[in-house]
Amino acid sequence: MQSDHPITVNDPGRLLTLTYVVSLSIIAILSLVVHFMLDSVIAEQNDTGKIVNVSGQQRMLSQRASLFAVDYLLSGSEKSQRLSIAAIEKMKQNHQFLLSEHFEALEKGEPSPLSETLLNLYFYFPSDVDNKIKVFEEQIKAVLTQEAGAAMTLNSTKSLKFLQLAESDLLIPLHNIVGQYEKESREKVDELRHAQNIVLGIIILTILIEAFFIFRPMVAKVSRFAEKLQRDANFDFLSGLLNRRAFQIVAQQALAYSQRYKRPLSVVMLDIDFFKRINDSYGHEVGDKAIKHVAKILKMSSRNADCVARIGGEEFVLLLPDTDRAGAFKLADKLRDRISNNPLDVDGKFIDITVSGGVSFVMDEHNSIETALSQADDALYKAKQGGRNNVQLA
Known about the structure:
It is a single chain. The chain is α+β, with helices and mostly antiparallel strands. It folds into 2 domains: about 230 residues, no CATH class; about 150 residues, Reverse transcriptase/Diguanylate cyclase domain (Alpha-Beta Plaits), CATH 3.30.70. About 70% of the residues lie in helices and about 10% in strands. The strands form 2 sheets. It has a 5-stranded mixed sheet, sandwiched between helices. Strands 4-5 form a two-stranded antiparallel ribbon. A hairpin with a 2-residue loop joins strand 4 and strand 5. Helix 1 packs antiparallel against helix 7. It is flat. About 25% of the residues are buried. This is diguanylate cyclase. Its cofactor is Mg(2+). It is a multi-pass membrane protein. Its EC number is 2.7.7.65.
């Protein structure tokens, strides 16, 4: 039952005409895509060159500001004072330019355009460049306001704290930022070039196909499209299980069969315990892995005749033909135990996952599967109230 497609695509022939028209235009469209991709490569290289240049200036400006500040302390030169201030101001302007898109995105409530690596370099320990530039600026300006020319001032640890930043604490992270910008630039350009080559290859392939195999490729394309529609209509993209809509269709068919031939039919609902805590503690990516992990165990532990579906965020349902209440409870508890004893392995770190379950038996008087689902959901609620990681009967 799990492999059935309750929803089918009828009369795909009307798509044939549209596919034929599209195929006549595809070469021109792909040619335009190649053109725009080439423009994107050029624009990306120009933008990257500017960013890399500006970020590279930061290293030089930090050294320039600190050297002129030291010279001011030693000689009292007003020129060195001005040059140091100019360097630090330019460094501040460059920093604002490099992070302008980041702060604009935050103001709009949008995700930062910076990569995770750059975010770590700019805002998090140990690099924390954003904060260190502010500290560096404050220390430089504080030094430049001191009375210059005194040897004791030069030997003052407090006065020369900025040198530690300029020599390593700030310089090394700035160097790493330049390297990261260069790395990400190469990756973006390589991706665009790779995509451009792929599209160019598609153009050549399309010319050959349209020259020698017009009809058969169109039919194959329609077939693939119909298959994709069937898949998307019936299956949950994350877990690979049936989705709620497809489950209801299969379940209603199973209910009609059960009532007609007087065969037992049971429903089991399972819900991952403390799923929000998993997302909050480990991130949504791990949460998705937890859903896939549970789905895999359910699929591997069920019979071919059983129907397994994901009908909610962390909620699963099993439809068990030819299974009475006791058998359904036994299977649900076995699944609960199997999930509990098979923690999720995330890069060598094991995360315990448990589920709570509710079991209901489909009665003859049930007109729809929704009644049995509602009863199983009530039993699931009791299992949650009973401490979780247990199964309750409706």
